[in-house]
Amino acid sequence: MSTKVVVYDLDGVITTRDTFTTFTIEQLCRRPLRLVPAIPLAVRRFLSRDEEFRRRTGVRIARIALRGLSEEDFTVRVENFGRRVGAGRTWIRRSAVARIRHQKAQDATIVIATATERRLAAALLNRAGVPYDLLSASELSATPTGIDVTDHRLGERKAGALRELGIDLAGAEFVTDSFSDLPTARAAATVVLIGASRRTGQKFRDAGVATRSATVVP
């Protein structure tokens, strides 16, 4: 492996929006009656600043949206969505992609670490032409009632999954937009913010994590 490892978050960094949330909303709209239990949960999630509550609530909403789907149907839907998003002009930060391509050309090892679903992320990255060496993403699997989240790679779990894959975070650059990535940021050698709000930057500073911002455009 290259001596330079760069770990990129996906949503908000390479994309301009949250991919799996948008996919989930689309699935709910296919079955409007499922919006009845989902909307109150979504409102509570939006208003909460508790990251663990937001994570659990997001999983519950996904279960409602994906109830009854087979593994095959889910794969078709999520991969089609990923390819559509990857081709979308308003979805992809082209300058972030250019940054990744430049680093890859300089022999950096590019790792994508995301809480979004693995098949969605792979389809999106391939369609958008994003080069990478390793993808660490959340896993969803079939259950008797439908598709469920079996490995949500968010927060501490994102950092843990990277270590399990052999990534030396202590020597890596980490690129993110989200304070939910604090565990990975704390472990990384350097932290670069792309697409992050000023408030997020301040929260990292308050947590004792030094960051720098990369100049990118949508």
Automatic annotation (TrEMBL):
The keyword Hydrolase applies. Keywords: Hydrolase. GO terms for molecular function: hydrolase activity. InterPro entries: HAD-like_sf (IPR036412), HAD_sf (IPR023214). This is Haloacid dehalogenase-like hydrolase. It comes from the Bacteria. Pfam families: HAD.
